[in-house]
Specification:
The complex is a heterodimer. In chain A, 67% of the residues lie in helices and 3% in strands. Chain A is an all-alpha fold. Chain A has one domain. The chains are: A mainly alpha, B alpha+beta.
């Protein structure tokens, strides 16, 4: 079935995969908001939301419905087009990351081998970085278009924070890339999956810590949530936003968390690899399902870690944030990179 | 500078030590503390279903009391209104007519007795001032209302049901009240 020199079934297959992954990410994000509240509550000796539905499980639906039903307010002095573009960009950038994440090995359905990855491009991780840096435009545009000094200040903070921490993040990543020799996430995961191979966390413990800290800063999570510092900037960049536009911003944060968890799991924790299990001995479909579950478990653990940290540590002061980024993380990442390079050179003889 | 209390602590302005500048050890310590709270008992009371026991001296909404024969105790002497620091109580007295002896205990009674629950501070001074044991504070507290007018409680709202003619309502009111 080849028309216009296109494999239409492949197109269909990819479209279905995109739909599944996007909706699954949104669904998980919806319930991440719920678990965020539950985790916060449990860490603070409270029961948390427990009224809507059994154990409060319908709470995210109620929250979503509330956000949709709210009045949509666009301030008179706001720049209308940009005001709408801001949350749209934040959300799009957050969701676009999922295109290159290998969710599992391939399944065989109807005689076709279907990769559970939307696009295995050979510059996968570079694409992730490109898209993540675009996420800061959502914050920038939203803060600027609101025509509110607090929003603008928050947007500037967000931009400078993202730029500072992306540097250290990239440098930490380079060390991983030196080990794997590939930018494709699939290849990086496959290398960690190979029998006898260790996960990258074993070779790059410092690199992982740096990457994790920077990922937290990129997601604007506490202790790096300066762009939405409630007590100094009112609400930060989304102060003037209401209704679903606000919802998009809040949602984008959670989608970002999920995506960065997935990236971290793929880079350092073997992606969809199950430790001490040789997947190649299993039937491909079963291996794929186990792989998805394994990756999801890793993502959930990371999400819990994000929340746990959020409800433990207070926010950094702005100068502390910059000091940490430029004076600690970047030098450490450089040292890590040099040490990794030296070891690789030494091993090659 | 002389501190006003001996509880003041001077802020340490010393630069952070190397371990503190690493942040991570202290962060891990903090996270261990929050993690230990997962296993702690939650003190939460699921309010409408569970209710906390009130202390025996709790002061809630007022009730106007009756005597053993179901007659109103209040004689509209006005001492409660005088004692009230919030000036929440107003009343109008009336004389008991022949044939009303089963309704009112003494020759004078309150034809109108109103407490403005928005003004009331629930101090219980009316209860202390009353020479006839006619007013008591119950354990019911601050029900909601849509209008301010609804918070002005008249005799209908305050008077405890008659024990002899309406025993069920009386028992229900006693359950909530502490007379």
């Amino acid at each position: 079935m080849t028309l216009l020199a296109l494999d239409w079934i492949l197109m269909l297959e990819k479209l279905i995969l995109i739909a599944i992954i996007v909706f699954a990410s949104l669904g998980i994000a919806l319930y991440t908001t719920f678990s965020e509240r539950k985790v916060a509550a449990v860490l603070q000796d409270r029961p948390g939301p427990n009224r809507a539905g059994p154990m409060g499980l319908l709470q995210p639906l109620a929250d979503g419905l509330k956000l949709i039903m709210k009045e949509e307010i666009i301030p008179n002095s706001a720049s209308k087009g940009l005001f709408i573009l801001g949350p749209a960009m934040a959300m799009t950038a957050a969701l676009m990351t999922c295109a290159v994440i290998p969710w599992s090995s391939s399944v065989e359905l109807f005689g076709r081998k279907i990769d559970l990855q939307i696009a295995d491009i050979n510059i996968g991780i570079l694409y992730v970085f490109g898209v993540v840096s675009m996420g800061v435009y959502g914050i920038m545009i939203g803060g600027w278009a609101s025509n509110n000094k607090f929003s603008l200040m928050a947007a500037l903070r967000g931009a400078s924070q993202a730029i500072s921490y992306e540097l250290a993040m990239g440098l930490a990543l380079i060390a991983v890339l030196m080990i794997s020799g590939s930018l494709s996430l699939k290849t990086i995961v496959d290398q960690q999956m190979a029998p006898g191979a260790w996960w990258n966390i074993v070779y790059q413990p410092l690199g992982f810590i740096l990457f994790f800290v920077c990922a937290m800063a990129e997601c604007n999570r506490t202790p790096f949530d300066l762009p939405e510092a409630e007590n100094e900037l009112n609400m930060g960049y989304h102060q003037e936003y209401s209704s679903m536009k606000l919802g998009f911003y809040l949602f984008a944060e959670y989608v970002n968390m999920i995506m960065s968890s997935a990236v971290m799991a793929s880079l350092y924790f073997g992606g969809y690899d199950v430790p001490f299990l040789d997947e190649s001995t299993l039937a491909p479909n079963i291996a794929a399902i186990i792989g998805v579950l394994s990756l999801l478990t890793k993502i959930v653990i990371f999400l819990f870690l994000f929340m746990w940290i959020r409800w433990t540590i207070p926010r950094f002061r702005y100068d502390q944030l910059m000091n940490l980024g430029w004076k600690s993380l970047i030098p450490l990442a450089l040292v890590n990179m040099l040490a990794t390079g030296a070891v690789i050179l030494w091993q090659q003889g | 500078m002389q501190a006003l209390t001996n509880r003041a602590k001077e802020v340490s302005r010393e630069p952070m030590t190397f371990m503190e500048r690493l942040y991570l050890p202290n962060i891990v310590k903090g996270m261990a503390i929050t993690f230990s709270h997962i296993f702690k008992k939650q003190p939460t009371i699921q309010y409408p279903e569970q209710k906390r026991e009130f202390s025996p001296v709790f002061r809630g909404l007022h009730v106007l009391n009756r005597d053993a024969e179901g007659r109103e105790n209040c004689t509209a002497c006005g001492l409660c209104a005088v004692a009230c620091p919030a000036e929440a109580i107003t009343m109008e007295a009336a004389e008991r007519m022949p044939g009303e002896e089963h309704l009112y205990r003494e020759e004078k009674y309150a034809a109108k007795y109103e407490i403005n629950m928005l003004r009331c501070i629930f101090c219980g001074l009316c209860e202390e001032a009353c020479p006839k044991d006619a007013i008591y504070l119950s354990e019911t507290f601050a029900p909601a209302n849509f209008t301010r007018k609804g918070f002005i409680y008249g005799k209908n709202d305050l008077l405890i049901p008659n024990k002899n003619t309406a025993p069920e309502e009386y028992a229900a009111a006693r359950g909530a009240a502490r007379v």
